[in-house]
């Protein structure tokens, strides 16, 4: 896994750097997508996620709507496809995106509308240099939002 300014970039994922979206191709051919570590940091604590399966989308168009303490905005599709599933976990607990953006915090799954690999998508192992420049320009260092009970140690409980 590559890391830049405390932001993680798993080697096995593909990244749409412009849209700050990652892609994982599942064995079924479905694409799982989510917010990158820098995107969730920029957004702050995620409060609501809305999306609906069955929606056909073009690359760059809205797959879901994300609301955080800082903004409300579209979560863009990195490729053309049809939304086949929205992550029930993030619908119930949107902050999972902040805590685990590349694991339980994925946003949606798409059935691609054809060949999905394109030159604008960069493999995780190769994306660090590009993000280093982008994050440096933006002055971003990643952090994860965790509930207070997860950040307290046993010694804190005794206080």
From TrEMBL:
* The keyword Nucleus belongs to this UniProt entry's keyword annotation: no
What's a GO biological-process term for it?
A: protein lipoylation
Q: Which InterPro entries match?
A: 2-oxoA_DH_lipoyl-BS (IPR003016), Biotin_lipoyl (IPR000089), GCV_H (IPR002930), GCV_H/Fam206 (IPR033753), Single_hybrid_motif (IPR011053)
- Which PANTHER family does the record match to this protein? GLYCINE CLEAVAGE SYSTEM H PROTEIN, GLYCINE CLEAVAGE SYSTEM H PROTEIN-RELATED
Tell me if Transferase is a UniProt keyword of this record. Answer: no
Domain called Lipoyl-binding: residue spans: 30-111
Kindly state which keywords UniProt assigns to this record, in alphabetical order: Lipoyl
A single GO cellular-component term on record? glycine cleavage complex
A single Pfam family it belongs to is GCV_H
Which organism does this sequence originate in? Sulfobacillus thermosulfidooxidans
Record's family? Answer: Belongs to the GcvH family.
Question: Can you tell which superkingdom this protein's organism belongs to?
Answer: Bacteria
Q: What protein name does the entry list?
A: Glycine cleavage system protein H
